[in-house]
Write a structure and sequence with these properties.
four-stranded antiparallel sheet, about 425 residues, six-stranded mixed sheet, Rossmann fold, alpha+beta, about 40% helix
Length: about 425
């Protein structure tokens, strides 16, 4: 028998019309999920459901775990995708590494087999544990707790069990005498999540906490709706209209919106650092990770792929249109760029560049500064080279106004800034 709330979740998620990959560990939650799916699909179960199991070989009990997984795959005659791996000491701790590893594999299977998405057995207790962890760490998540349907790096994830608690799952399985594997590492109280699970959760009114989570998420939804209406890059005029807490939320919203890969344990520190950085009233860059930065000017700020350390060089021989990852250009009329003939090589600015024409300012860096090129765009600015000499540096205003047939892809966002901000 399927609980009404879970049946409603299956229907809400349109499971009748989906082919699903189930993250299956043989633990009580995933066994309960599979039992519910078997009741839902009946004889059509193997037409809609495949299992996925990863053996991390992280404890002496994994043989028992795998035995349980194989038992249920055989019992229901389901296709099983199995992966064996071993943890090696690295920057990430085991839990973070294992999470990244399994979701990468889940995504690989879903894409290869053209499935609708991944189903996980996260339940109400997990949702509340996540919420309590978020509060304890002073996180600024886009959502408190867990969401029934979400997307992680392009992988659709369904969580239909968020209405049932861990205690209820145990009661059901034990009453029905349905076997499952109990992971002994879940009793390790050195882990913060296990401390919450064993010491805090049992004393809570789960229904009351669940309602609290929903109320907070409704408040967040209204706030994020206001964020979504902001123009980007964000002017400080709009930013300063928010309270201190709302500013921090906005920063978290923008970082999450960019899908930047970050160490989850560092997020709170990063948000705090960005908040302090934005309180400064000068041009600058805050490096978020190895490829993304937050840039601020006197008037606005934005998050982007880093513009520094850019290196490109392209040589064009024919009078036609060209496009690459950095820019698009129409060389049908080379005279637009003071070119008498082709070929021409276009590369980015480098420190020490000097222009070969008769302009009063020979230093390219000074020339770009004089033209008002923002500091974060200088390293990627295009220069035209012939006979190993810089013979053209397009005027910045001509690029922005499309006076020259050159479109710099890194500059595209700038046209969305209001004239006042410019």
């Amino acid at each position: 028998m399927i609980l009404k709330s879970i049946l409603e979740a299956f229907n809400r998620l349109d499971f009748k019309n989906k082919k699903l990959l189930v993250a299956f560990s043989g633990g009580p939650d995933s066994v309960y999920l599979l039992n519910c799916l078997a009741g839902y699909y009946q004889a059509d179960l193997n037409m809609h459901v495949s299992l996925c199991y990863i053996n991390y070989h992280d404890s002496p009990y994994v043989d028992k775990e795998e035995e349980t997984v194989l038992y249920f795959a055989s019992l229901y005659k389901l296709k099983l995708y199995k992966k064996d791996t071993h943890y090696k000491k690295q920057d990430k701790n085991f839990e973070e590494w294992a999470r990244d590893y399994r979701y990468h594999y889940f995504k690989e299977v879903v894409r290869k087999e053209k499935l609708s998405g991944l189903v996980t057995a996260h339940q109400l207790t997990d949702k509340i544990e996540t919420y309590l962890m978020q509060r304890k760490r002073n996180n600024l998540p886009l959502l408190y707790g867990l969401k029934e349907e979400t997307t992680l790096k392009g992988l659709t994830i369904f969580r239909p069990l968020l209405s049932i608690s861990k205690v209820n799952i145990y009661q059901y399985l034990d009453t029905k005498k349905i076997p499952y594997y109990e992971d002994i590492t879940n009793t390790n109280l050195k882990k913060q999540r296990n401390q919450i699970r064993k010491k805090v959760i049992p004393s809570l009114d789960l229904e009351k906490i669940s309602l609290e989570i929903e109320e907070k998420n409704q408040e967040l939804e209204k706030l994020y709706q206001s964020f979504s209406l902001l123009s980007y890059p964000l002017s400080f005029k709009n930013y300063e209209a928010y309270s201190s807490d709302e500013k921090k939320r906005l920063i978290a919203y923008l970082v999450n919106k960019e899908n930047i890969s970050l160490n989850q344990t560092r997020l709170a520190g990063i948000y705090k650092d960005i908040y302090s950085f934005l309180n400064k009233r000068s041009n600058g860059e805050y490096i978020i990770n190895h490829e993304s930065s937050l840039y601020r000017t006197k008037d606005f700020f934005f998050i982007s792929k880093q513009y520094k350390n850019v290196s490109y060089s392209y040589t064009y021989k024919n009078k036609k249109k060209y496009s690459n990852k950095y820019f698009s250009i129409n060389l049908s009329n080379p005279s637009k760029f003071n070119l008498k003939v082709l070929p021409v090589t276009i590369r980015n600015f480098k420190k020490g560049d000097k222009i070969a024409t008769n302009l009063p300012t020979k230093d390219v860096y000074k020339l770009l500064k004089k033209q008002g090129v923002p500091f974060y765009l200088i390293d990627s600015y295009p220069l035209f080279i012939q006979n190993k000499k810089i013979i053209c540096v397009p005027f910045y205003k001509d690029i922005l106004s499309s006076k020259v047939p050159l479109s710099i892809k890194a500059f595209a966002f700038y046209n969305s800034v209001s004239d006042k901000d410019k």
